[in-house]
Write the structure tokens for this entry.
Amino acid sequence: MGWKPTWPTNMLKKRDMKKRIKKLMRRDKSPASAKAPRPITNETVAEHREEVLGSARKYIYPLQHSKHRIVLISTALIIAAAVIFLSYSVAALYRFDNTSNFMYRVTQVVPFPVAKTGSRFVSYENYLFELRHYIYFYENQQKLDFNSAAGQEQLREYKKRALQKVVNDAYVKELAKQNNVSVSNQEVEDQITLLRRQNRLGGSEQAYEDALKQNFGWTVDDFRRVIRQRLLEQKVLAAIDTETQARAEKALALLAQGKKFEDVAKQYSEDEVSKARGGTFGFPIDRANRDINAQTTDALFRLKPGETSGIINTGYSLEIVKTISKNDDKVEGAHIVFNFKNLENYLNDLKEKQAARVYITVK
């Protein structure tokens, strides 16, 4: 056999050896030789929780910022809308004297003032409430066209009247406060019951509601509101006009002493027509008679023939009545009248001390 060189074989062996060494080294990198796991402690749990939260924050923070921007934008839009709405309402009420249904509803929610008496504001809603029943009545009952020249002139007069009425009402409330006068819910209901019993507002509940709606555009609650103010005026007037009250009490004392009714009537009554007749009305009275005050009629029907009442506040006078006779649904009677002083006299005294400021110009 011939000689063969050995160096290629040796080279191959060295290469195989290196490959085996590398393979063994790779096998040594086993889980056993890897870094040992950290023990579970409070610190490692906290670190892990922070890692998780840190990963979540990159999603949460943008969402939070988006919500915050939405809230800011929504708030800004609401404020802008409110400013625009209030600006429109102020212009409509104070510049253009708008009396529409919409603006009336606005004043029921937003307490815009129409005037100020002393420290008391008079709400715009009170003014529109008073004005609207004038408008409703004359449009529907009198068929007055407020778009005509004559109608516009009449409307201006109603506006002045309504404004004066609500300003005076505010002064009445101030006088009521000074004299500790108030009106209870029961007094309001009693007065309405009295009016309905005399068939002045319709017999049935539906007729009653229809009468209020057709004549004035009022609901039952609106009517209660009107009656409450009317009763307050009456009670205030009775409280401050002490002279009239004193005259009535003196006449009542004379009757209690046995003096004849007709003689006391001729001496004290301020109704010149009936005074000359000894106080007699001069005609039969039924419950629905609208020429006689409701309180007077009610007292005449409650009394027995020959009986005399106490002092009755009819609103703008005090009366003492006597039932002379009853015949079916009618009575004959007499009365002694003591007229109150004009309420305006007391209001004017208060107006001099607390001048009113009016915020609108009637157009």
